[in-house]
Design brief:
This protein is an alpha/beta fold. The chain contains 15 helices and 27 strands. The protein has a seven-stranded mixed sheet, with helices on both faces. The protein has a six-stranded mixed sheet with strand order 11-10-9-12-13-26, sandwiched between helices. Bound molecules: nicotinamide-adenine-dinucleotide. The site of nicotinamide-adenine-dinucleotide has 33 residues, from helix 7 and helix 8.
């Protein structure tokens, strides 16, 4: 593996002490009633970098109670959009002022590179600002053509108490795809971050208070899916659950919440294809494929973990991707030049390796990587950038989410076959096409089963442009005005003008 670009030095120092993360309930930062805590061992450095309160039913119940009371007394939901927007904008300012601190702990808990963590935490401020703009501009509908004596309006109202359950791969970013939008709508919230990455969510609590968010409007409970996540999903005082994570847990949450007919929004896994036609910017496509699979070490719902490349150019294209993969800077996430860091846990690295072994056993060929990676001086877990070709559609590596730096290469001959292969998946989060022919791109964009389609680019995203999946990649949408609407109920208000209603009962 000497021909990989490995960065072993670091320029940001490891903090001298572990960050202490606490719950935030009814405006008060607190430890668990039973005093339980958990250690987070950094994926890259192998040392304890944070200690977090481990919640139980006591904290989950208290947080839901606080959120319910805060919603029902209208301390937030009945404020003007302008007042809510002012608070959200102040939170955005505070996030920007604290990007450096947020990014270091995000890096240490998740294993992602510091430059990326800074980009995500800083970029999250823009999600808060955009949500603030929606708080002020949200409006319903009016029906002024129902007759001279009838006027109807459709009101948008906050849905109520929202449980927000987030994963470890983009902790602060995904939190910011949900929380400011729920708050902008006037909802109150209980947030549960992943037990692997609790700290940046806990850090936000202080910023919310400083920005003027009333106590009880946003509560944070740290801990495991069971019991905290399950309680947040099924509790009778919760009106909606928004979840980002694995399809398996999403299914469990849907069952628990479905028993009480709660609204559920789900952002789940993906097996996202990029289709490469011969008549495209091949250099740009190869770079996007390299980015698409190795960004966040492939631990990304939007990872383009399979490519479907025209067989005529497959050899040349794979050679380009392999050459670029050798130049990607893998290694110590605390070095500013690092582009790809560590795998979240040792167990997850084993799962990734098992997927690669299974692909080889099924007859696929590893043309780059395929094993663990040691970064000098670091005690964490890393995996080599891996490219696997000779993949056929029936193989698990073509169908299942690996959630690691492992690219599966399939080939096609005709545009019809490319679309059929792209759609041959239980997932439908995102898809991409590289082609200079606009007609081929448009046809693909309309027929591919995915929530987002990129043409001649990959993973460009904007707060304004909604995001979400079809099939087993999820339900509901996030960000953009559609994502905001998920947190709103509509109510029709039908009004008669004057005493014109004809009696129903004949009183003659
Ligand atoms: P996960 O499903 O294991 O955990 C996600 C969250 O759910 C964590 O906070 C966890 O504690 C909680 N949880 C676990 N069991 C629960 C239960 N029974 N009830 C309620 N909550 C429970 O997912 P992960 O490993 O943290 O993240 C990886 C997965 O997330 C991948 O499948 C990835 O594709 C997906 N993901 C999707 C998107 C998207 O936008 N579509 C974005 C990021 C990650």
């Amino acid at each position: 593996m000497n021909d990989l670009h490995i960065i072993s030095g670091q320029t940001v120092a490891l903090p001298a002490t572990a960050y202490q993360a606490r719950h935030f309930i009814d405006g008060v930062a607190q430890d668990s009633a039973d005093g339980r805590r958990s250690d987070r061992i950094s994926p890259s450095h192998g040392v304890v970098v944070s200690q977090a309160a481990l919640g139980s039913a006591v904290e989950a119940e208290a947080a839901i109670r606080a959120a319910r009371a805060a919603f029902d007394d209208g301390r937030w939901s009945r404020l003007s959009g302008k007042a809510r927007a002012a608070v959200l904008t102040r939170v955005a300012d505070l996030i920007e002022a604290n990007v450096g601190t947020l990014a270091v702990i995000e890096t240490l808990e998740s294993g992602k590179p510091i430059a990326q963590a800074r980009g995500e935490c800083g970029g999250a401020a823009d999600l808060w600002r955009y949500a603030a703009s929606l708080a002020r501009t949200s409006h319903g509908d009016s029906h002024n053509t129902l007759g001279a004596d009838i006027l109807a309006v459709v009101l948008k109202e906050p849905i109520g108490v929202v449980s927000i359950i987030t994963p470890w791969n983009f902790p602060f970013w995904i939190l910011s795809q949900k929380l400011p939008f729920a708050l902008a709508a006037g909802c109150t919230c209980v947030v549960k971050p992943s037990e692997l990455t609790p700290s940046t969510t806990a850090m936000l609590a202080g910023m919310l208070t400083e920005a003027g968010l009333p106590a009880g409007v946003c509560n944070i409970v740290l801990g495991h899916g069971n019991p905290v996540g399950s309680l947040l999903s099924g509790h009778p005082d919760v009106d909606m659950v928004t979840f980002t994570g694995s399809t398996a847990v999403g299914r469990t949450i849907t069952k628990v919440a479905g028993d009480r007919l709660k609204k559920v929004a789900l952002e789940l896994g993906g097996k996202n294809p990029q289709v490469i036609f011969p008549n495209c910017d091949l250099a740009g496509a190869a770079d996007a494929v390299t980015f698409g699979i190795f960004f966040n070490v492939g631990q990304c719902c939007n990872s383009s973990s399979r490519i479907i490349v025209h067989e005529k150019i497959a050899d040349d294209f794979v050679a380009r991707v392999v050459a670029l993969s050798r130049k990607v800077a893998f290694g110590n996430p605390l070095h500013p030049d690092t582009q790809v860091g560590a795998i979240v846990t040792p167990e997850h690295r084993e799962r990734i390796d098992a997927c690669v072994r299974a692909a080889v056993a099924a007859g696929a060929e590893v043309c780059l990587g395929g094993g663990s990676l040691t970064v000098p001086g670091l005690g964490g877990q890393f995996y080599q950038p891996t490219v696997i070709r000779g993949v056929t559609p029936d193989m698990a590596i073509a169908r299942e989410e690996v959630f690691g730096p492992v690219l599966a290469v399939l080939t096609f001959r005709t545009p019809e076959e490319a679309i059929a292969l792209a759609n041959d998946a239980t997932y439908g989060l995102s898809a991409g096409i590289w082609c200079d022919d606009i007609h081929t791109c448009l046809d693909f964009g309309r027929r591919v089963q995915a929530g987002t389609v990129w043409t001649n680019t990959w993973m460009d995203g904007f707060p304004e442009v909604t995001f979400g999946g079809v099939k087993q990649s999820g339900q509901g949408r996030e960000i953009g005005s559609y994502g905001f609407d998920e947190f709103l109920e509509v109510k029709s208000l039908v009004m008669r003008i004057g005493r014109t209603r004809a009696p129903w009962v004949n009183q003659a």
